[in-house]
Amino acid sequence: MSAADVSLAPRSRTLSASVRLLRSELRLIMGRRRNQAGILVLASVPVLVAVALKFSQPREGRGPDFISSATSNGIFVALTALSIELALFLPLAVAALSGDTIAGEANIGTLRYLLTVPVNRTRLLLVKYVSLVLGATIGVLVVAITGLAVGGALFGLGPTTLLSGTQVGLADALGRLAIAVLYLSAGLAALAAIGLFISTLTEQPIGAMIALVVTSTAMFILNEIPQLEWLQPWLLVHYWPAFSDAFRDPIFYEQMGQGLLVALAYAAVFLSLAWARFTQKDVTS
User: Comparing C-alpha atoms, which of 19, 202, 209 is closest to residue 105?
Assistant: First the structure.
């Protein structure tokens, strides 16, 4: 065996261990009954939206552009559901997952056991965060795919008239929906970084969950106060509604680009804080 093979072997074992740990985290996330119930709640909103629009009389000039366009193309049911769930249900889902990452395991004692193996704390924290990002993405996908399926069944799918009035083919519209899903997932990933940090501060998962919900709700409230216009561009949630810019012609990337930069900054800061806290935290005594 060459020296290069010897040096690569530990890296390979480390990567394999990380992949196994990530698989275990994802099985825990998807196997918990409350998370499965949460997925059903996320999926129920686009169903309720589609049924309500199907059996109600639309009013001209009332509601967001997505709602007024939903009855003409099922793809807008997915966008309407994402708009509705963005302020509460999706952050709540991220909060529920975040509370279980560190605080939940510390509460039931499994974190103490895990770290006495020992497992590298930095790697464990990164795996926990990746599982949160994947969980947030799954939540957004559930809303989008359910809305697309129900909207397509009730209103049909086909050439889509964008918010700017231009008509594009279905494949183009689905590509724009994918951009919206990825953009919202990035925003929720930054929120998950805040949740991960909060989870390192306590051993009570419910407390961590409530703290993150309060944090996201407070940002939404601050974002609506005109006197705080100077602060709003620095709030994580300020640019989240910019996902609708994917349905303009041409796609308006400026607001989404700024939103991604803000999300990256939040993720970097709070992941650093989580790492500093978690690597110094006494969980083995």
Answer: 202
